Amino acid sequence: MGNAVDVAVEYYIKRFGDDVSKAFIHLVREVGEIAFAMEKGNVEHAKVEIAESIALLHYMARLYSMDADATIERIYSKKLESLTKQQP
Question: What pTM, to 2 d.p., does this model score?
Fold first, then answer.
């Protein structure tokens, strides 16, 4: 079927189509579930909710024609370089 991200994106395309607003609202709910799981000390539940949040973010990135991995690498390479320069 494809890699994990592709499977998740396909699921969210079927669920939300191109409605990024509905997807974002769902993402906020998932983040709330992460907080609830952390508060209760339920690591397994937190892992599931983190995975769902990551999948939703990949889906949203695809809607915006964004290469998430390349963008993250570009941004955080610069941030890491900046931090490295600040350290004595």
Answer: 0.86
Written as six digits, the tokens of 30 are 């998932």
Ramachandran region, residue 37 (left: φ > 0; alpha: ψ -120 to 50; beta: rest): alpha
Q: How far is CA 69 from the centre of its chain?
A: 11
Q: Which domain holds residue 29?
A: 4-86
The DSSP-derived string for the chain is ---HHHHHHHHHHHHHTT-HHHHHHHHHHHHHHHHHHHHHT-HHHHHHHHHHHHHHHHHHHHHTT--HHHHHHHHHHHHHHHHHHH--
Per-residue pLDDT tens for 9-36?
Answer: 999 999 999 999 999 999 999 999 999 9
Distance CA 47, CA 37 (A): 9
